[in-house]
UniProtKB/TrEMBL annotation:
Pfam family, one: Epimerase
Residue span(s) of domain NAD-dependent epimerase/dehydratase: 53-251
Database matches in CDD domains: NDUFA9_like_SDR_a
One cellular component (GO) term of this entry: mitochondrion
Protein name: NAD-dependent epimerase/dehydratase domain-containing protein
Gene3D superfamilies: NAD(P)-binding Rossmann-like Domain
InterPro entries in alphabetical order: ComplexI_NDUFA9_subunit, Epimerase_deHydtase, NAD(P)-bd_dom_sf
Entry's Gene Ontology molecular function annotations: protein-containing complex binding
Highest taxon of the lineage: Eukaryota
Length: 373
């Protein structure tokens, strides 16, 4: 009897000894609502960072990278979706019960509110590269952003992070960019503390940037003579930056322009793709009116093609406006010259698949180094 009591006492003492201690750095107090967010556990996906986060647009290109980073810290993540098949790959990124799928429709306000009401942070990654018969640029970039901001304000969401685009401008000839700017202004008028993120063209494994250039064989990149300047950014760097904004109080109410560390023309990018893939890509220049007409004709096809507004965007140089950048988040963006081959190797034929990248000068100032291969 006494031995049993001693054993029980020792077990209780052992359990007490391993009980987690709480420290000041485990507590986060929201500057907006005063809400206290408490971290528990030793870190990792099976612990909790105290956040409940809704990520609209999570089934898109950037969404999987952002959710992967959030889930690694044990956040509870609401995954709004329209098609169940589009979000299945997200469910395994978090621990059991941490990824919560919720079916929504942009024109069903109740479904949007249900996805927000329990969250302390909302990421709005919703966006369209082209218009469809169901949703225009304005529907997605302006009206939907405004509704989400209103609902977030109603439920006192601590952080609202709005995805926009580099070169967003009300007066832009591109409807995509003008509606992105309208969306920014609307969100800021409703939530002044919202963080606006303007990335340049993003590249990665499932992108519509490098992959399109590699498959285009000259058609899309020779618009405007291939002299349009771009600063492509790795999607992983953008996801890392947006992850840092979760608890970064210095990002509240700020605008960030996230671009790569090097500027290229489309012609220079095409030369790099040629060297990387060993594809004989043509140098045909297509005048803008002809390219726009072809894009409109191709849009009747049942699969996604180059849109007329995308042709317009390929005429606009990437420009920074003085907003905050990766430097303010202490992030050093990766180089396309180093990482590009990871995403372009699949376009090689079996004859060249395992060959190293050949050294080549893109122009007098830029050389693509291959010492990493």
């Amino acid at each position: 009897m006494i031995a049993g009591l001693n054993l029980a006492k020792q077990s209780k003492q052992a359990a007490s000894a391993v009980a987690q201690k709480r420290f000041a750095h485990d507590l986060i107090v929201s500057p907006k609502t005063g809400r206290t967010i408490i971290r528990t556990g030793g870190g990792g996906r099976s612990s909790s960072n105290g956040h409940v986060i809704t990520v609209f647009g999570c089934t898109g290109f950037l969404g999987r990278y952002l959710i992967n980073r959030l889930a690694r810290e044990g956040a509870h993540i609401i995954v709004p979706y329209r098609d169940e098949d589009d979000m299945r790959h997200l469910k395994v990124m978090g621990d059991l019960g941490k990824i919560v799928p919720m079916e929504i429709h942009l024109r069903n306000k109740d479904s949007l509110e249900a996805a927000i009401r329990h969250s302390d942070t909302v990421y709005n990654l919703l966006g369209r590269d082209y218009e469809t018969k169901n949703f225009s640029f304005s529907d997605v970039h302006v009206e939907a952003a405004g509704v989400l901001a209103e609902l977030a304000q109603k439920h006192e969401v601590d952080r609202f992070i709005q995805m926009s685009a580099l070169n967003a401008d009300i007066d832009s000839p591109s409807k995509f960019l003008s509606t992105k700017a309208e969306g920014e202004n609307l969100v800021r008028s409703i939530i002044p503390s919202a963080t606006i993120v303007r990335p340049s063209a993003m590249y990665g494994q499932e992108d519509r940037f490098l992959a399109r250039l590699a498959m285009s064989r000259g058609l899309s990149v020779r618009i405007n003579g291939g002299i349009t300047k771009v600063r492509p950014v790795n999607v992983s760097d953008v996801a890392t930056a947006m992850h840092k904004m979760l608890d970064g109080h210095n990002t509240v109410g700020e605008t960030f322009e996230l671009v790569g560390n090097q500027e290229y023309t489309y012609k220079e990018l095409m030369n790099f793709i040629k060297e990387t893939t060993n594809l004989d890509i043509g140098d045909i220049n297509v005048p803008k009116p002809v390219a726009s007409l072809l894009a409109k004709v191709m849009n009747v096809l049942p699969w996604q093609t180059l849109g007329a507004d995308e042709v317009e965007r390929m005429m606009i140089d990437d420009k920074l406006t003085g907003a905050k950048t990766f430097d303010d988040l202490e992030i050093d963006p990766t180089s396309l010259e180093v990482t590009g081959i990871q995403y372009l190797r699949r376009f090689r034929t079996n004859l060249y698949n395992d060959e190293p990248l050949k050294k080549g000068v893109v122009n007098k100032k830029k050389v693509f180094h291959t010492s990493y291969l």
